[in-house]
Amino acid sequence: MEQTRIELLKKLTEARGISGHEDEVAAILRAELEGHVDRFERDSIKNLFAIKGMGRPGPNVMLNAHMDEVGLYVTRITKEGYLHIGKAGGIDDRLLLGKKVLVGKDRLSGVTSIKAVHLSTREEIETTVVKADDIVVDIGAKSDKELAGKVTVGDQITFDTAFGTFGDGYLVGKAFDDRVGCAIVAELLKMDWPFPVIGMFSAQEEVGTKGAMVGAWRYPPDISITVEGTIAADIGEVKDYQEVTSLGAGTVLTIKDGGMITDHRLRNQLIEVAKANGLPWQFKRIPAGGTDARSIQLTKSGVRALAVAVPSRYIHSPVSLIKVCDYENTVSLLSKFLAQLATTEA
């Protein structure tokens, strides 16, 4: 994998941006794409648009990935200086205990905490899942007065997870859902296409695809490709038919998920391109979850929409894994598909 792509992924995954706080991610993408697109735009909900080739012949093609990550936010500050939390997006409460986090604009270090195991009853330990409402973040403050001007209700709390390599060809980090999609869309926007291309890096996907619901109306596309990081459950205790996708098996193509059915003709064209170029691909084997594609598909009189993804273990958690080969194969497959689209949809 090219070092520049590794560096971009590192910047994006280590950036902080729960739903509604996407500015840091948008700034990285804008800097990366400066000089490669004609112009940038932001809208009221904080979607970032990277536009190139408007007015050229051919279909308007939207390349979409979402900027926000699942995380937490401050709901209350106690007199003792502890922070109560709420969840932004779908996070399993079982994953929240004992995690290092960063709080607010100043990236204050903290840890999620409850009372020690020594003070818990056997029933609490063996049968109780501690709810997010009962967890606090400790940032080493002695009182709420000490936090005045540093932390306020509504501040974002993100997981403090470093990007790095792992095992044989793995990358480890937070927010591969969907910073890996952002990186791939950025790579595709650096390439030249003979048709109009709208890069939409959307906001607030993790709380109901709200950014895409609004943003696709700004530049209604004819064809849309949403690029995601999706569930890979290829781990020991999961039954074969529940694995959804597998790491190392190539780009994930969605037939149907919890929100939409993808365009059959475009999906079949994508499969033919993969076969012709010897690129691995796999179907998403359980129709779980949903993506921005469902909102984009319903724009105006309807959009021919695809959802493709890089498989990722442990999404919606503080740390996840992807394989370099899946990332590279997805860039290659989509670039070749778009090249063919230039002739078939002209």
UniProtKB/TrEMBL annotation:
<dbReference type="Pfam" id="PF05343">
    <property type="entry name" value="Peptidase_M42"/>
</dbReference>
<keyword id="KW-0031">Aminopeptidase</keyword>
<dbReference type="InterPro" id="IPR023367">
    <property type="entry name" value="Peptidase_M42_dom2"/>
</dbReference>
<feature type="active site" description="Proton acceptor">
    <location>
        <position position="205"/>
    </location>
</feature>
<dbReference type="InterPro" id="IPR051464">
    <property type="entry name" value="Peptidase_M42_aminopept"/>
</dbReference>
<feature type="binding site">
    <location>
        <position position="177"/>
    </location>
    <ligand>
        <name>Zn(2+) 2</name>
    </ligand>
</feature>
<feature type="binding site">
    <location>
        <position position="228"/>
    </location>
    <ligand>
        <name>Zn(2+) 1</name>
    </ligand>
</feature>
<dbReference type="GO" id="GO:0046872">
    <property type="term" value="F:metal ion binding"/>
</dbReference>
<dbReference type="InterPro" id="IPR008007">
    <property type="entry name" value="Peptidase_M42"/>
</dbReference>
<keyword id="KW-0479">Metal-binding</keyword>
<protein>
    <submittedName>
        <fullName>M42 family peptidase</fullName>
    </submittedName>
</protein>
<keyword id="KW-0378">Hydrolase</keyword>
<dbReference type="GO" id="GO:0004177">
    <property type="term" value="F:aminopeptidase activity"/>
</dbReference>
<feature type="binding site">
    <location>
        <position position="66"/>
    </location>
    <ligand>
        <name>Zn(2+) 1</name>
    </ligand>
</feature>
<keyword id="KW-0645">Protease</keyword>
<dbReference type="GO" id="GO:0006508">
    <property type="term" value="P:proteolysis"/>
</dbReference>
<feature type="binding site">
    <location>
        <position position="177"/>
    </location>
    <ligand>
        <name>Zn(2+) 1</name>
    </ligand>
</feature>
<feature type="binding site">
    <location>
        <position position="206"/>
    </location>
    <ligand>
        <name>Zn(2+) 2</name>
    </ligand>
</feature>
<comment type="similarity">
    <text>Belongs to the peptidase M42 family.</text>
</comment>
<feature type="binding site">
    <location>
        <position position="316"/>
    </location>
    <ligand>
        <name>Zn(2+) 2</name>
    </ligand>
</feature>
